[in-house]
Amino acid sequence: MGIEEEVKRLQWQSRRGMWELDLMLVPFVRDCFQGLDKEDRQRYEQLLECEDQDLFVWLMQRDLPEEPEYRVILEKIIAYAEHGDLSNFKSL
């Protein structure tokens, strides 16, 4: 599967049924996924397996996931939602 097809598939999977999640996940995968390294791409796909309630709490920064791998990609999603790009992204 090519990267364009993968992005389309993930855009569909990123539509969660919660407006707040859709507003953060869909633009991120559309605009940033191709620029992520292999590990972050895998992290994003793993993140999509989580429950919507957990994603909401994490993306609204009310709590952190126990898994450090999720924290890495969540930081990028939140940074993109706040700033519109990842060019100045620095992990915490």
Brief characterization of the structure:
The N and C termini lie far apart (33 Å). This protein is mainly α.
End-to-end C-alpha gap? 33 Å
User: CATH homologous superfamily, by name?
Assistant: Flavinator of succinate dehydrogenase
* Count of strand segments: 0
Question: Any idea what the shape is?
Answer: globular
What is the radius of gyration? 12 Å
What is the CATH topology descriptor?
DNA polymerase, domain 1
Q: Average pLDDT value? A: 91
Number of structurally distinct domains? 1
CATH architecture: Orthogonal Bundle
CATH class membership: Mainly Alpha
User: How would you classify the helix and strand content by structural class?
Assistant: mainly alpha
Main sheet attributes: strand count, strand direction, barrel closure: none
